[in-house]
Design the sequence.
């Protein structure tokens, strides 16, 4: 399951983001920074890969990630199939 948590955005900006990128997965507001603090987010944006057991198995802390690159697709495929 994919999920984006907005930490510093305003709701209207989050809706624009969702519409711009045609996002169909849930977007949540973290108004009280609970998720930010729980995951130790120090820079934005921060992307976490969390396995089925809830364990963080990867983290990307930069804005210019090419999510459509073959290497990123392979990483995501690997993480989706991981049985650990």
Sequence:
């Amino acid at each position: 399951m994919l999920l984006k948590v907005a930490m510093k955005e305003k709701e209207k900006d989050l809706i624009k983001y969702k519409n711009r990128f045609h996002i169909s997965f849930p977007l949540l507001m973290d108004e009280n920074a609970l998720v930010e603090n729980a995951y130790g987010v120090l820079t934005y944006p921060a992307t976490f890969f969390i396995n089925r057991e809830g364990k963080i198995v990867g983290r990307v802390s930069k804005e210019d990630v090419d999510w459509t690159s073959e290497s990123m697709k392979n990483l995501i495929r690997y993480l989706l199939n991981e049985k650990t």
